[in-house]
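Protocol step 6 of 9: fold each sequence in the batch and record its C-alpha coordinates directly after the sequence line. For illustration, a two-sequence batch is reproduced in full.

Sequence one:
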Amino acid sequence: MASIFEIESSQQADSEKGSSALPSEDVLQEYRKRVEGTNIDARSFLSTDYFNSFNSVVMILDLLPDAPDLLEEVEQWRYVNYTEHFKASGLDFAELAIEVYPFSPPELREAFERKVQGIRLIIESLIKTLRGLLDAGEKDAFANLARTTTAQLRAMMGEGNGLVHGYACKAQEEIDKMFQD
Protein backbone atom coordinates (compact mmCIF):
# COMPACT_ATOMS: atom_id res chain seq x y z
CA MET A 1 0.00 0.00 0.00
CA ALA A 2 1.31 3.45 -0.89
CA SER A 3 2.08 5.77 1.98
CA ILE A 4 -0.59 8.28 2.83
CA PHE A 5 1.74 11.11 1.85
CA GLU A 6 2.18 9.63 -1.63
CA ILE A 7 -1.59 9.32 -1.90
CA GLU A 8 -2.05 12.88 -0.61
CA SER A 9 0.42 14.30 -3.14
CA SER A 10 -1.26 12.39 -5.93
CA GLN A 11 -4.71 13.52 -4.80
CA GLN A 12 -3.61 17.13 -4.47
CA ALA A 13 -2.38 17.01 -8.06
CA ASP A 14 -5.63 15.29 -9.11
CA SER A 15 -7.65 17.86 -7.18
CA GLU A 16 -6.02 20.66 -9.15
CA LYS A 17 -7.10 18.84 -12.31
CA GLY A 18 -10.63 18.34 -11.01
CA SER A 19 -10.36 14.63 -10.15
CA SER A 20 -11.18 13.49 -6.65
CA ALA A 21 -10.87 9.70 -6.40
CA LEU A 22 -11.51 8.46 -2.87
CA PRO A 23 -10.04 5.30 -1.35
CA SER A 24 -12.10 2.16 -0.87
CA GLU A 25 -14.82 2.03 1.76
CA ASP A 26 -12.60 -0.31 3.83
CA VAL A 27 -9.86 2.32 3.92
CA LEU A 28 -12.37 5.02 4.82
CA GLN A 29 -13.75 2.85 7.64
CA GLU A 30 -10.22 2.39 8.99
CA TYR A 31 -9.73 6.17 8.95
CA ARG A 32 -13.06 6.64 10.74
CA LYS A 33 -11.83 4.36 13.51
CA ARG A 34 -8.53 6.20 13.72
CA VAL A 35 -10.14 9.62 14.11
CA GLU A 36 -12.35 8.51 17.02
CA GLY A 37 -11.46 10.46 20.14
CA THR A 38 -9.88 13.31 18.18
CA ASN A 39 -11.18 16.67 17.04
CA ILE A 40 -11.56 15.29 13.50
CA ASP A 41 -15.11 14.62 12.34
CA ALA A 42 -15.43 10.96 11.37
CA ARG A 43 -17.77 11.72 8.48
CA SER A 44 -16.15 14.78 6.95
CA PHE A 45 -12.50 14.07 7.94
CA LEU A 46 -12.20 17.80 8.74
CA SER A 47 -11.34 19.41 12.05
CA THR A 48 -12.82 22.54 13.61
CA ASP A 49 -9.44 23.14 15.21
CA TYR A 50 -8.34 24.74 11.95
CA PHE A 51 -10.51 27.76 12.74
CA ASN A 52 -8.25 28.52 15.70
CA SER A 53 -5.90 30.07 13.14
CA PHE A 54 -8.65 32.63 12.51
CA ASN A 55 -10.05 32.84 16.06
CA SER A 56 -6.90 34.48 17.37
CA VAL A 57 -7.06 37.39 14.94
CA VAL A 58 -10.85 37.74 15.26
CA MET A 59 -10.54 38.01 19.05
CA ILE A 60 -8.12 40.91 18.61
CA LEU A 61 -10.29 42.49 15.90
CA ASP A 62 -13.10 42.40 18.45
CA LEU A 63 -11.05 44.62 20.75
CA LEU A 64 -10.08 47.19 18.11
CA PRO A 65 -13.03 49.59 18.57
CA ASP A 66 -11.80 50.26 22.11
CA ALA A 67 -8.09 49.63 21.54
CA PRO A 68 -7.08 50.79 18.04
CA ASP A 69 -3.40 50.43 18.95
CA LEU A 70 -3.91 46.65 18.70
CA LEU A 71 -4.12 47.03 14.93
CA GLU A 72 -0.35 46.57 14.80
CA GLU A 73 -0.79 43.13 16.35
CA VAL A 74 -3.53 42.28 13.86
CA GLU A 75 -1.21 43.33 11.03
CA GLN A 76 1.21 40.59 12.13
CA TRP A 77 -1.38 37.88 11.40
CA ARG A 78 -0.57 35.60 8.49
CA TYR A 79 -2.85 33.10 6.82
CA VAL A 80 -1.87 29.45 7.08
CA ASN A 81 -3.53 26.69 5.11
CA TYR A 82 -4.99 23.56 6.67
CA THR A 83 -1.80 21.51 6.41
CA GLU A 84 0.44 24.33 7.66
CA HIS A 85 -1.86 24.91 10.62
CA PHE A 86 -1.71 21.31 11.75
CA LYS A 87 2.03 20.96 11.11
CA ALA A 88 2.62 23.88 13.47
CA SER A 89 -0.11 23.03 15.97
CA GLY A 90 1.63 20.48 18.17
CA LEU A 91 -1.69 18.65 18.53
CA ASP A 92 -1.45 14.91 19.07
CA PHE A 93 -3.83 14.30 16.15
CA ALA A 94 -2.16 16.81 13.79
CA GLU A 95 -0.55 14.23 11.49
CA LEU A 96 -3.82 12.33 11.26
CA ALA A 97 -5.72 15.55 10.43
CA ILE A 98 -3.30 16.13 7.53
CA GLU A 99 -3.48 12.49 6.47
CA VAL A 100 -7.28 12.29 6.23
CA TYR A 101 -7.90 15.76 4.78
CA PRO A 102 -7.70 14.64 1.13
CA PHE A 103 -10.35 11.99 1.84
CA SER A 104 -12.99 14.45 2.92
CA PRO A 105 -16.00 14.20 0.60
CA PRO A 106 -14.95 16.42 -2.33
CA GLU A 107 -18.03 18.66 -2.42
CA LEU A 108 -17.82 19.21 1.32
CA ARG A 109 -14.08 19.92 1.25
CA GLU A 110 -14.54 22.35 -1.66
CA ALA A 111 -17.28 24.21 0.24
CA PHE A 112 -15.00 24.27 3.30
CA GLU A 113 -12.09 25.62 1.26
CA ARG A 114 -14.29 28.30 -0.32
CA LYS A 115 -15.46 29.38 3.14
CA VAL A 116 -11.86 29.49 4.42
CA GLN A 117 -10.75 31.59 1.43
CA GLY A 118 -13.66 33.96 1.99
CA ILE A 119 -12.63 34.43 5.62
CA ARG A 120 -9.02 34.92 4.59
CA LEU A 121 -9.83 37.56 1.97
CA ILE A 122 -12.08 39.50 4.33
CA ILE A 123 -9.44 39.55 7.06
CA GLU A 124 -6.67 40.61 4.69
CA SER A 125 -8.82 43.34 3.14
CA LEU A 126 -10.09 44.48 6.52
CA ILE A 127 -6.58 44.91 7.88
CA LYS A 128 -5.62 47.22 4.99
CA THR A 129 -8.86 49.18 5.21
CA LEU A 130 -8.60 49.60 8.98
CA ARG A 131 -5.04 50.86 8.64
CA GLY A 132 -6.20 53.47 6.12
CA LEU A 133 -9.05 54.61 8.36
CA LEU A 134 -6.85 54.82 11.43
CA ASP A 135 -4.13 56.74 9.58
CA ALA A 136 -6.81 59.15 8.28
CA GLY A 137 -8.11 59.72 11.82
CA GLU A 138 -11.50 58.16 11.00
CA LYS A 139 -11.96 56.62 14.46
CA ASP A 140 -15.75 56.16 14.27
CA ALA A 141 -15.59 54.51 10.84
CA PHE A 142 -12.66 52.40 12.09
CA ALA A 143 -14.63 51.20 15.13
CA ASN A 144 -17.83 50.54 13.16
CA LEU A 145 -16.03 48.60 10.45
CA ALA A 146 -14.13 46.52 13.01
CA ARG A 147 -17.39 45.69 14.87
CA THR A 148 -19.48 44.80 11.84
CA THR A 149 -16.79 42.81 10.08
CA THR A 150 -15.88 40.89 13.22
CA ALA A 151 -19.52 39.82 13.54
CA GLN A 152 -19.51 38.76 9.88
CA LEU A 153 -16.30 36.76 10.38
CA ARG A 154 -17.72 35.00 13.45
CA ALA A 155 -20.78 34.00 11.43
CA MET A 156 -18.61 32.71 8.61
CA MET A 157 -16.50 30.67 11.02
CA GLY A 158 -19.71 29.23 12.44
CA GLU A 159 -20.72 28.23 8.92
CA GLY A 160 -17.27 26.70 8.46
CA ASN A 161 -17.71 24.70 11.65
CA GLY A 162 -21.04 23.52 10.26
CA LEU A 163 -19.29 22.31 7.13
CA VAL A 164 -16.79 20.37 9.26
CA HIS A 165 -19.75 18.52 10.74
CA GLY A 166 -21.36 18.02 7.34
CA TYR A 167 -23.97 20.76 7.36
CA ALA A 168 -24.83 23.85 5.38
CA CYS A 169 -23.52 22.83 1.96
CA LYS A 170 -26.48 20.78 0.69
CA ALA A 171 -29.95 19.70 1.59
CA GLN A 172 -29.78 17.40 4.60
CA GLU A 173 -30.88 14.31 2.66
CA GLU A 174 -28.01 14.85 0.22
CA ILE A 175 -25.57 15.15 3.11
CA ASP A 176 -26.91 11.96 4.62
CA LYS A 177 -26.50 10.19 1.29
CA MET A 178 -22.82 11.28 1.12
CA PHE A 179 -22.14 9.68 4.49
CA GLN A 180 -24.09 6.44 4.15
CA ASP A 181 -22.08 3.35 4.97
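Sequence two, same batch, same settings:
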Amino acid sequence: MGGVWSRRALVASGVAFALVLIWFAAALPDRVPGHFGLSGEVNRYDDKGIFVAGMAGIGVVMALLFGAARWWMPRLPGSVINLPGKKARAYWTSPAHRDELNAIMASAMETIGVFVLLLLSVIVLISGVAGLGTTIPAWVFWLLTATFLAAFVGCLIPLMRKTRVPASAR
Protein backbone atom coordinates (compact mmCIF):
# COMPACT_ATOMS: atom_id res chain seq x y z
CA MET A 1 0.00 0.00 0.00
CA GLY A 2 2.79 2.41 -0.80
CA GLY A 3 1.83 5.96 -1.74
CA VAL A 4 3.27 6.05 -5.26
CA TRP A 5 1.96 2.59 -6.15
CA SER A 6 -1.51 3.28 -4.83
CA ARG A 7 -1.84 6.59 -6.69
CA ARG A 8 -0.66 5.06 -9.96
CA ALA A 9 -2.94 2.07 -9.53
CA LEU A 10 -5.90 4.34 -8.82
CA VAL A 11 -5.24 6.34 -12.00
CA ALA A 12 -4.79 3.14 -14.02
CA SER A 13 -8.04 1.66 -12.69
CA GLY A 14 -9.83 4.93 -13.48
CA VAL A 15 -8.52 4.79 -17.05
CA ALA A 16 -9.58 1.14 -17.34
CA PHE A 17 -13.06 2.02 -16.10
CA ALA A 18 -13.32 4.87 -18.63
CA LEU A 19 -12.23 2.56 -21.46
CA VAL A 20 -14.80 -0.07 -20.46
CA LEU A 21 -17.52 2.60 -20.43
CA ILE A 22 -16.43 3.86 -23.87
CA TRP A 23 -16.55 0.31 -25.24
CA PHE A 24 -19.96 -0.21 -23.65
CA ALA A 25 -21.35 3.02 -25.11
CA ALA A 26 -20.04 2.17 -28.59
CA ALA A 27 -20.80 -1.56 -28.76
CA LEU A 28 -24.12 -2.07 -26.99
CA PRO A 29 -27.66 -1.57 -28.27
CA ASP A 30 -29.95 1.15 -26.92
CA ARG A 31 -31.44 -1.14 -24.23
CA VAL A 32 -28.93 -2.82 -21.92
CA PRO A 33 -29.07 -5.15 -18.93
CA GLY A 34 -29.37 -2.93 -15.87
CA HIS A 35 -29.84 -5.48 -13.12
CA PHE A 36 -29.37 -9.20 -12.56
CA GLY A 37 -31.18 -11.57 -10.21
CA LEU A 38 -29.50 -13.97 -7.81
CA SER A 39 -29.53 -16.70 -10.42
CA GLY A 40 -27.79 -14.49 -12.98
CA GLU A 41 -30.82 -13.72 -15.13
CA VAL A 42 -31.36 -10.18 -16.38
CA ASN A 43 -34.38 -8.81 -14.53
CA ARG A 44 -34.24 -5.18 -15.67
CA TYR A 45 -33.21 -3.41 -18.85
CA ASP A 46 -32.17 0.24 -18.94
CA ASP A 47 -31.62 2.89 -21.55
CA LYS A 48 -27.94 2.71 -22.52
CA GLY A 49 -27.41 6.46 -22.07
CA ILE A 50 -28.84 6.43 -18.58
CA PHE A 51 -26.80 3.34 -17.64
CA VAL A 52 -23.55 4.84 -18.94
CA ALA A 53 -24.21 8.23 -17.33
CA GLY A 54 -25.12 6.60 -14.01
CA MET A 55 -22.09 4.35 -13.96
CA ALA A 56 -19.82 7.21 -15.05
CA GLY A 57 -21.22 9.37 -12.25
CA ILE A 58 -20.67 6.64 -9.68
CA GLY A 59 -17.13 6.10 -10.99
CA VAL A 60 -16.27 9.81 -10.85
CA VAL A 61 -17.62 10.16 -7.30
CA MET A 62 -15.67 7.07 -6.16
CA ALA A 63 -12.46 8.20 -7.89
CA LEU A 64 -12.72 11.66 -6.33
CA LEU A 65 -13.59 10.33 -2.88
CA PHE A 66 -10.74 7.84 -2.79
CA GLY A 67 -8.33 9.89 -4.89
CA ALA A 68 -8.66 12.99 -2.73
CA ALA A 69 -7.82 11.16 0.51
CA ARG A 70 -4.40 12.83 0.63
CA TRP A 71 -6.24 16.15 0.68
CA TRP A 72 -9.09 15.37 3.09
CA MET A 73 -7.31 13.11 5.61
CA PRO A 74 -5.20 15.93 7.12
CA ARG A 75 -8.34 18.07 7.40
CA LEU A 76 -10.24 15.54 9.52
CA PRO A 77 -10.18 16.39 13.20
CA GLY A 78 -8.59 13.68 15.32
CA SER A 79 -11.87 13.30 17.19
CA VAL A 80 -13.54 11.67 14.16
CA ILE A 81 -10.74 9.19 13.48
CA ASN A 82 -11.59 5.77 14.86
CA LEU A 83 -8.72 3.40 15.53
CA PRO A 84 -8.83 0.16 17.51
CA GLY A 85 -7.98 1.07 21.09
CA LYS A 86 -7.54 4.30 22.99
CA LYS A 87 -3.75 4.02 22.95
CA ALA A 88 -3.65 3.68 19.16
CA ARG A 89 -5.98 6.61 18.71
CA ALA A 90 -3.98 8.79 21.10
CA TYR A 91 -0.69 7.79 19.47
CA TRP A 92 -1.71 8.24 15.84
CA THR A 93 -3.77 11.40 16.23
CA SER A 94 -1.02 13.18 18.19
CA PRO A 95 0.77 15.93 16.22
CA ALA A 96 3.99 13.88 16.27
CA HIS A 97 2.43 10.98 14.32
CA ARG A 98 -0.55 12.44 12.49
CA ASP A 99 1.29 12.99 9.18
CA GLU A 100 2.34 9.36 9.12
CA LEU A 101 -1.24 8.26 9.88
CA ASN A 102 -2.54 10.49 7.09
CA ALA A 103 -0.14 8.89 4.60
CA ILE A 104 -1.02 5.36 5.73
CA MET A 105 -4.75 6.03 5.56
CA ALA A 106 -4.58 7.87 2.22
CA SER A 107 -2.66 5.02 0.65
CA ALA A 108 -5.20 2.53 1.99
CA MET A 109 -8.08 4.66 0.66
CA GLU A 110 -6.43 4.83 -2.77
CA THR A 111 -5.97 1.05 -2.75
CA ILE A 112 -9.61 0.50 -1.81
CA GLY A 113 -10.51 2.94 -4.58
CA VAL A 114 -8.63 0.73 -7.04
CA PHE A 115 -10.74 -2.26 -5.95
CA VAL A 116 -13.96 -0.26 -6.22
CA LEU A 117 -13.16 1.04 -9.74
CA LEU A 118 -12.15 -2.44 -10.88
CA LEU A 119 -15.38 -3.83 -9.44
CA LEU A 120 -17.36 -1.19 -11.35
CA SER A 121 -15.40 -2.05 -14.52
CA VAL A 122 -16.25 -5.73 -14.21
CA ILE A 123 -19.91 -4.94 -13.51
CA VAL A 124 -20.07 -2.87 -16.70
CA LEU A 125 -18.27 -5.64 -18.63
CA ILE A 126 -20.72 -8.25 -17.36
CA SER A 127 -23.67 -6.08 -18.32
CA GLY A 128 -22.09 -5.49 -21.72
CA VAL A 129 -21.42 -9.16 -22.40
CA ALA A 130 -24.97 -10.00 -21.34
CA GLY A 131 -26.27 -7.19 -23.53
CA LEU A 132 -24.52 -8.77 -26.49
CA GLY A 133 -26.42 -12.01 -25.91
CA THR A 134 -24.25 -14.12 -23.60
CA THR A 135 -25.88 -15.70 -20.58
CA ILE A 136 -23.94 -14.96 -17.42
CA PRO A 137 -23.88 -17.88 -14.97
CA ALA A 138 -24.76 -17.04 -11.37
CA TRP A 139 -21.37 -18.23 -10.10
CA VAL A 140 -19.72 -15.28 -11.88
CA PHE A 141 -21.56 -12.84 -9.61
CA TRP A 142 -20.72 -14.82 -6.50
CA LEU A 143 -17.06 -15.08 -7.53
CA LEU A 144 -16.94 -11.35 -8.23
CA THR A 145 -18.43 -10.56 -4.83
CA ALA A 146 -16.08 -12.95 -3.02
CA THR A 147 -13.05 -11.59 -4.87
CA PHE A 148 -13.94 -7.99 -4.02
CA LEU A 149 -14.47 -8.86 -0.35
CA ALA A 150 -11.19 -10.80 -0.21
CA ALA A 151 -9.33 -7.85 -1.76
CA PHE A 152 -10.94 -5.48 0.72
CA VAL A 153 -10.00 -7.66 3.69
CA GLY A 154 -6.55 -8.06 2.16
CA CYS A 155 -6.20 -4.28 2.33
CA LEU A 156 -7.59 -3.95 5.86
CA ILE A 157 -5.27 -6.50 7.49
CA PRO A 158 -2.04 -4.63 6.61
CA LEU A 159 -3.78 -1.36 7.52
CA MET A 160 -4.58 -2.70 10.98
CA ARG A 161 -0.98 -3.86 11.38
CA LYS A 162 0.42 -0.52 10.27
CA THR A 163 -1.74 1.41 12.72
CA ARG A 164 -0.77 -0.58 15.80
CA VAL A 165 1.11 1.38 18.40
CA PRO A 166 4.82 0.56 17.94
CA ALA A 167 6.31 -1.56 20.75
CA SER A 168 8.70 1.29 21.62
CA ALA A 169 5.72 3.57 22.40
CA ARG A 170 3.66 1.14 24.48
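Proceed to step 7 once all outputs are recorded. Observation for sequence two: The chain has a mean pLDDT of 94.
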